[in-house]
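Lab notebook page, bench 4
Experiment: in silico fold of construct C2
Operator: M.H.
Input chain length: 179 residues
Purpose: comparison with the prior construct
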Amino acid sequence: MTEAPRIAPLAAAQRDEAQQTLVEATGGELNIFTTLVRHPKLFEVFGRFAGRLLRRSNLPEDVREILILRTAYRCRAYYEWVQHTAIGRAAGLSDEVIAVLGTEAPEPADQNLALLISAADQLTSRRDLDDPTWAALAERFDEQQLIELCMLVGNYAMIAGVLKSLRVPLEPGQSPPDW
């Protein structure tokens, strides 16, 4: 991503007290947060929602990160991909699984991984799940997890569009994936 930001991250010296508090509550000076904090009221609501999906998820960590990474790939969202590659590794995803998630026509041997890829692909392309995929997911996840799964992919597809449209830059030292 070499394009200049359309809305630049807000430097700490330019933030008011409320903006600084919001950035600190997210846990860091990442470009996603320092850009979105330019709209503090919206950022506060978004932060609570996204934080719930990320930090207090009912889904297992590895499942959550598989869905996020696949959504990032399908949306060609470099920022999300780079951030969640590290988070995914911390959640136990192998480099092999991460590589599969970043391919156009993955054929994983693991049926659970294949199901999650299919779910993310359907939700990002059609905004719906076909009946066989839903049935397979319903065998593995409870109702709250099924709702959360759909909201998680929807949230990350939405934020992919926001970050790409605003041209939020990768963090210093990060490189975009080779897709």
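Observations: Residues 61-165 form a domain with the AhpD-like fold (CATH 1.20.1290.10). The chain has a mean pLDDT of 95.
Next step: discuss at group meeting.
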